[in-house]
Amino acid sequence: MLSASSRTIHRASRALCRCRVSQSPLRQLSSDSSTTSSSSSFSIYEYPTRTEAPVITSTTAEKERSSGFKSKAPVKPVKVYVGEDPFDDQGQLSPEDREAIREKQTAEFESIKLSSLPITTSVPSFIPPNVPSQELKAPETLITRLDNGIRVVSQETYGQMCTVGVLTDVGSRHEPTPGIIHLLETMAFGSTKKYNGLQIAQLLQDWGGTRFVSHSREQTLHCIDILRPNVKDGMELLSQVVLEPLITEIPEDFMQALAVLEFQAQEQLPELVLGEALQVAAYGPDQQLGKLHFATQETIQKLTPDLVHDFYQKSIRKNPEGIVIAAAGLGHDELVDLANTYFGDMKQQESPTTVPSLYRGGSHFIGKPTQPSIYSQSAPDEDYCRVALAFPVGGWHSDSMVTACVLQTLLGGGSSFSAGGPGKGMYSRMYQQVLNRYGWMETAEAFTTFADEGGLFGVSGSTPSAKKVVDMVTVLADQLGRLAYQQVDDVELSRARNMLKCNVLTQLESRLILFEDMGRQVLTYGKREDAATTCQKIDAVTAQDIQSLAQTMLKGNPPTLAATGSHLDQVPSSEEVSRWFQ
User: Fold this and answer.
1) Helix orientation angle between 251-266 and 305-312, rounded to the nearest 10 degrees
2) What gap in Å lies between CA 151 and CA 325, rounded to an integer?
3) β-pair type (443-450, 455-463)
4) Pairing of strands 220-227, 210-215
5) Nearest-5° angle of CA 118, CA 122, CA 128?
6) Sequence-separated (6 or more) residues with CB below 8 Å from residue 136
7) Which of 70, 261, 401, 528 fits a 20 to 30 Å CA distance from 202?
8) How far apart are CA 62 and CA 76, in angstroms?
9) pLDDT confidence of residue 4
10) Residue 13, number of CB atoms within 10 A of its CB
């Protein structure tokens, strides 16, 4: 990398090169010197940092020899140390002293315990056999239920890496005070009864592991992507992280986590704020699905170590029947043994209560923060108005869920700027009929959110123009309304089905996605549906199915309207939007 001075010189040279020749004093100097010196070829392009013409001389070996030139012996550099000479550059140590120092260093290095295996001439037993793929058993998803109710699911990948993790059926919908799940996610992989946070980070680095945490309204996920020979250590660490976190024992860690939440609460990304507003508008803050997922400045003040610890004990530590242990890239019998070893002593005592939330519809607006943006790179200075319009659909257990996913792919959408390319959805409706037609719209895309008892299907968009807010909401509503009275054509339906299948199959090539897919399916359905069955369901979706879904969600259901950012006074009310669909 260039030093600061080098970068300064480089910038100066570029600036000089942009100057016109007639205005450059260096060029004038070069032309003047050309009349009195032999260096007439000097120019600022060859020597951009010089202020005068260089003096160029030449000679030959014959001339040097005739002038009595003698080559000088190289001078050995002398290193000067302040204090002790650590490398004995002066040669002051005797052979005996050198040997004593060598033996001391050898003893120190041998005392360091490394988890990595030494290099040997034989292949370690944990590495799968190097045989042709046709001789390997086709990977299949295997599920086992332990005596205490924990479900174990795995699939072999025949690789040297393994993703193993723990999922629970607890989310922010179950918390008594909003922000507990958000706080637990922030404290994840922190101090436990056996390790502190720094030790955990060092162990993962030594084991070749990477950690991932994801908490939502219905589920939590902790996982480690780790080298296969270290999976036993990784599972022991996971048991500490999930079952033995120190919540009340170290007040400093708890206060630090609260400080992180307070910083995040200053300003969330606009997309997250819009999602929060959408849930509140659709279900109301008094229902589980209408609760805020992320902590706010108001709810942070209510979080105490005892409150968080009590929720953790009742919802996770004493609820093995709500836990799924999953692994991608590990033998099933080995995973079952590890699960029994580190999670087998759990006993079912309590579980969180899930109260179904009923769809209501309505509107909820959240204004732009008054303080300067802390996301200056991702949140431009322009004042954007972001709007989401949604209607109810079935949840995870609905027969129309796959249809909703195909419809979301058919509408597609994204940002007004895209590099294009295969799979970018440039032929989707939201691109062709919205973004390519209305230049004042910055984003336009379809979305789905699913829960156990129901979900939402909708479209969202953003614009910096206050005068175009009503037009933007009208365009979004028109895209939904058109689905109910006009069937999609076969070409775009076929394209949507193929794109959705492509997305599913390519995502499952990732070990991390495979792990998450297995764990969440078993946690939600008690089984795992393979990719072939999913693709068959996608292919079975017809144009009539999509029209029926659109008619069902629009008929008799009030719309959900959420908006964030600026120009909120220009957003029409949910009652006015509801009249558009009558």
Assistant:
1) 90
2) 6
3) antiparallel
4) antiparallel
5) 95
6) 158
7) 261
8) 29
9) 43
10) 15
The beta strands (E) that lie in 114-209 are given as: 142-145, 151-155, 161-168
Residues of the chain with pLDDT under 50: 1-45, 47, 379, 381
Q: Which residues contact 512 (CB under 8 A, 6 or more apart)?
A: 163, 212, 223, 225, 328
Residue 89 structure tokens: 């550059």
pLDDT at res. 224: 97
What is the Cα 572 distance to its own chain's centre?
Answer: 34
Q: What are phi and psi of 365, to 5 degrees?
A: -115, 140
- Three-state SS at 489: coil
Q: In percent, how much of the chain has pLDDT > 90?
A: 65
Residue with tokens 């996770």: 316
Alpha carbon distance 168, 524 (integer Å): 10
pLDDT at 78: 57
Do residues 6 and 14 touch, judged by C-beta distance below 8 A? no
Given this model, what pLDDT does residue 298 score?
A: 92
- What pLDDT sits at residue 68? 60
Summarize pLDDT for 127-169 with one digit per residue, the tens.
666 778 788 888 999 999 999 999 999 999 988 899 999 999 9
> In sequence order, which ranges of 351-452 are alpha helices (DSSP H)?
401-411, 429
